Each structure stands twice: as C-alpha cells, then as structure tokens.
C-alpha cells in the first residue's frame, strides 16, 4: 500500500492523501482501492483501476522535503505536476524508488540521478545494500527493442502523435478513434448531455490501460457505457503530444478566425485546414462528421454546435506551451469559437 497526494504545477500541496494498493503494469503505475481490487477478472482484465499513471516522460526523486514533511516519501513528476508517494517504511520506500526509477529508464526516460542521498537515519550497511541493489537493477536494464519483444514496453496510443499512430497501423484515422465513434453511435446519440456528462473515471482509465497495452478490446461490450466511451475519446485527443489542429498552425487558425469579413474568415480557415498533415485532416473530417450526427439529434441530447465546441475546443486546439502567458490567455478565448466555426462550416470545408 502507498499513500499518495497529487500536486498540480504551481499549486500548493494538498492535505488530502489517499492510501491505495499499487503495482507496476508495463509502462504504467496502477493504483487500486486494495489488493483484492487488482485481481483480473473476465470483465476487468486489469482489475478495478482507481488511477493509472503513465511513466513515459516521468522522473522520480527522493527529494521531497520542499513538498511535504512526511517521511519515507518519493516524488513522481511529469510536465503536468507531481505525485507524492509515501511508503510505510524507509526500506519499502527505497524498493519503490528502485523499481520506478528502473522502469522509467527502461522506457527511454531520464529519471533523476540514482545517487540521490539516502536518509541519514539508515545504517551504513543498509545504505550499502540499497546501493548494490540499485546498481544491480540498473545494470540489467534492457534496450527498448528487447522490452517490446518481452511485452513490457509498447508505444502508447494515448499521449502519442496522430502521424505515428496511423503509420504504425497503416490507417488514415487512428483505429481507436474509428472504433470508438462507431461504438458511440451504435449506443445512440440521443442521450442528453452526451460528451458533456462525465463518465466513470475508473472505467475510462481501465479502457485506456487496455488500449495502451495493445490488448484486444471490444467497445461493443456493455461494460463500456456511452459516457465512458465519450470520456475516453476526449482523453485520447487531450493527451496527444501535438494537438489535432497542431501547434504549428495555431496562429494561422487564430488569425483566420479574427478576419472581419465572413467570406474572408471562411477562406482563411479553409486554407489553413488544407495545410494540416494528411492524417490530422482525415481525423478531423471523421470526428466532425460524427459531431454533425450528434447535432442532428440536438433536440434530444441538448448538444448543439456551441455546446460541443465548449467541450472539445480545449481538447482539440491549443497553443504551444512556450507561448508567453499574455498570448496564451488571449488565444485560449478563441479555442471553442474556432472549433464551432469549423463544425458549422463542415460541409463547405470538407466538400
């Protein structure tokens, strides 16, 4: 069991800690309510997942003193924030540090230095054992190809890039997107608040984990309700390394949208759409066709173009994080408006 506490970038540490059972599963650190919940079943191949943390692009450190006064705590970090992990003893903490540090290294990451000082409370003998254990783990690290062959590492679908995903699958649109849209439409688009109402986060994480591990999945299975499917689809686009509308073209989309005359606005947006990488263009075309189908039933589902754009604006288009804060604040206002414009002009843009 580990106690954990999440810290968002720029925020103060929360006083809310949760005690959960944890285990490493491929490229993920997975949390469960208890050990029993981690047992796979026919319905839940990964058990009842509470939270799943992808270790790709993460680092781990024992230097937690500036974040918490709790003992036996390590810090798992990624670009979004930190996760404090507290073990019940120093020995257990060291073991977790070694496991996580090694797995991050196996995944091609750059974990913090393994020479992080060990607490002075330990004996020299114990420090020596821990150091030898760590050196042994590091020396046994395999290269990426070996890990792929063993099934330990797979290129993640979530957090990837549209171009790479489609190239690997030899598809125009990511297969998961196509299957997810089909499954959602089979369940019916008349559900009120579709895409707006949140699905079960544990189920969303479970589905994500299944897809990321490259396992066979059946989205027609009734265990995935419509809101879980919608939530997972949103998560897929939200976690892309490069947004669907791409960092490179964000300024052009913004400039085109701000054109004063309607005819010029359409001309500019259409022109920028044609500059998109082919797989991004095809994916937007397929996704927005699905949105049009949702809009056709807006009397029942209460999701017109404006509502869909509010939900998907921040998910599909955002500026490069390196943009200055003033530009960022100004540009974020237009995310939903650009998505709404493309949605309303769908037939003219993609004819």
Automatic annotation (TrEMBL):
One of its GO terms (cellular component) is cytoplasm. Residues 160-350 form the Rho-GAP domain. It comes from the Eukaryota. SMART domains: PH (SM00233), RhoGAP (SM00324). One of its GO terms (biological process) is signal transduction. One of its GO terms (molecular function) is GTPase activator activity. Residues 1-105 form the PH domain. Keywords: GTPase activation. This is Uncharacterized protein.
């Amino acid at each position: 069991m580990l106690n954990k506490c999440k810290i968002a970038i720029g925020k103060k540490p929360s006083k809310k800690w949760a005690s959960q059972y944890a285990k490493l599963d491929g490229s993920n650190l997975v949390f469960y309510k208890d050990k029993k919940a981690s047992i796979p079943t026919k319905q839940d191949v990964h058990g009842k997942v509470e939270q799943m943390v992808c270790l790709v692009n993460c680092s781990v450190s024992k230097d937690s003193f500036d974040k918490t006064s709790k003992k036996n705590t390590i810090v798992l970090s990624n670009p979004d924030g930190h996760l404090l992990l507290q073990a019940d003893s120093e020995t257990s903490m060291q073991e977790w540090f070694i496991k996580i540090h090694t797995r991050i290294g196996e995944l091609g990451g750059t974990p913090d230095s393994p020479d992080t000082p060990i607490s002075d409370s330990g004996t020299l003998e114990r420090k020596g054992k821990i150091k030898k254990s760590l050196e042994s783990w590091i020396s046994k690290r395999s290269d990426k190809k070996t890990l792929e062959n063993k099934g330990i590492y797979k290129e993640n679908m979530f957090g990837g890039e549209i171009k790479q995903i489609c190239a690997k699958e030899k598809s125009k649109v990511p297969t998961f997107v196509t299957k997810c849209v089909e499954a959602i439409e089979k369940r019916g688009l008349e559900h009120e608040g579709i895409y707006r109402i949140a699905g079960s986060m544990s189920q969303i994480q479970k589905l994500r984990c299944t897809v990321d591990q490259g396992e066979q999945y059946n989205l027609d299975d009734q265990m995935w309700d419509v809101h879980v499917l919608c939530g997972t689809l949103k998560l897929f686009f939200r976690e892309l390394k490069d947004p669907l509308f791409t960092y490179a073209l964000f300024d052009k989309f913004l400039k085109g949208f701000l054109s004063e005359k309607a005819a010029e606005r359409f001309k500019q947006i259409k022109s920028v759409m044609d500059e998109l990488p082919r797989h991004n263009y095809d994916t937007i075309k397929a996704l927005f066709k699905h949105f049009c189908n949702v809009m056709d039933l807006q009397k029942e589902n209460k999701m017109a173009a404006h509502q869909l754009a509010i939900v998907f604006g921040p998910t599909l288009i955002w500026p490069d994080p390196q943009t200055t804060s003033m530009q960022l604040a100004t540009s974020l206002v237009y995310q939903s408006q650009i998505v709404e414009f493309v949605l309303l002009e769908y037939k003219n843009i993609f004819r």
